[in-house]
Amino acid sequence: MTAAELPFFVYGTLRPGEHNHARFLAGRTAGGGPARLPGAALHDGPGYPYAVRDPRGGEVVGELVHAAPGAYAGLLAVLDRLEDFHGPGHPRNLYERLVREVVRVRDGARVAAWVYVAAAGAVPGPRIPAGDWLSRGPVRGAPRTP
Questions:
Q1: pLDDT digit string (tens) for 2-28?
Q2: In terms of residue numbers, what domain contains 107?
Q3: Which domain of life is it from (predicted)?
Q4: What is the spatial distance between Cα 110 and Cα 102, in angstroms, rounded to a whole number?
Q5: What's the structural domain count of the chain?
């Protein structure tokens, strides 16, 4: 894997069972597993979450996903569009795509991954105390998969 082909850490609507997983990741990924993003907090948004830096040492629960062979460029483009990422520091960004170290749950290994975090102009809602999007209660405006 080249430095440009990092895995992705997903923590919200792209997680298995959530409404964007099948729409955007199906057929484009090959493997992954549970992971955690240390030094971050998870906040509710209008149907999707925002990860933000947390100097208090919180963590965000999610999944590490790898692009399927030959699917990396397409997956990156699809996720950038979904996350409203127009380029580093762009004023229209909803999220910034940053390289962050995540921890794989299965073996504790630290892995560099792309993570979409709240951009400067985003307005995160209340903090999700467990740092786990799947543990939240009913969310306003988000379709839920049964």
A1: 457 899 999 999 999 898 999 999 889
A2: 8-133
A3: Bacteria
A4: 6
A5: 1
